[in-house]
């Protein structure tokens, strides 16, 4: 129950920061385009700093060996999630019949069924509730999710006429700053490089890493603030998509893992990675490549509002009651 209270408090904190970002944008205190600047700051500075400092501090040959199985769990689960995203997406856009807009909208739902905001929001939640030890395990677990998110996820969210193909996206995905920093951090941790890194540099990484969570939540609010909120919350299909994203998909996965006797720690990592609300990629990627952003914005708004209630409840049901 103490952890349940911490999860609830952390979700309320995140919601408050999202609302703050939303107000900043709606009142034009931050200008149009601020979301892009914050997003790049997160991608190129704060997330890499978090990955580097955590892996340098926590990754050793022993801890890597002890937790390497987590990557296999993450790989299997994301492959299953991607597999079921294809039939699930047809619930929301049943017949495309060669219509490029409908095909693209179906792809947005496909992405939403496969990925939650396991990165920015999941990182913030794990760090705030369970701390750095658990975050190290979480990065191991979500490593495969990051690879597929940046490759297959980019592939489905880029309009086909502008896509360079799945293999090219995989190459791009492997060269993103968060993933590069994670790999470098693991290697530095494994060879014990911390003893040779100047203290001021470690302190700089540590302080930059602490900005990741709050800035990510403000970023979410700023991006959502670009849209007409009344229009976004009237899309009925998005409520059904949020139900799948926040409750049905993680519940089915967790029940299956419990049925085979999976350890509680892995269940907790799975819950956070798959029960978070939808992230901003369904807005950022389409906006960058000329795709439709309204569906993704609707899901981001509605799922983030509902997650304040659903995520703590999911934790209570699956980690306390069952």
Arithmetic mean pLDDT:
91
Reading off the top of the CATH hierarchy, the class is best stated as Mainly Alpha
Number of domains: 1
Shape: globular
| The CATH topology | Na+/H+ antiporter like fold
Write the layout of secondary structure elements.
Blueprint: H1 2-26, H2 34-58, H3 61-67, H4 69-92, H5 100-114, H6 120-129, H7 132-157, H8 166-173, H9 177-190, H10 199-209, H11 212-224, H12 229-232, H13 236-259, H14 264-275, H15 281-289, H16 294-321
Helix pairs in contact: 1-6, 1-11, 1-16, 2-7, 2-9, 2-10, 2-11, 4-5, 4-7, 5-13, 6-11, 7-8, 13-14, 13-16, 14-16
Task: Offer a few descriptive terms.
322 residues, mainly alpha, Na+/H+ antiporter like fold
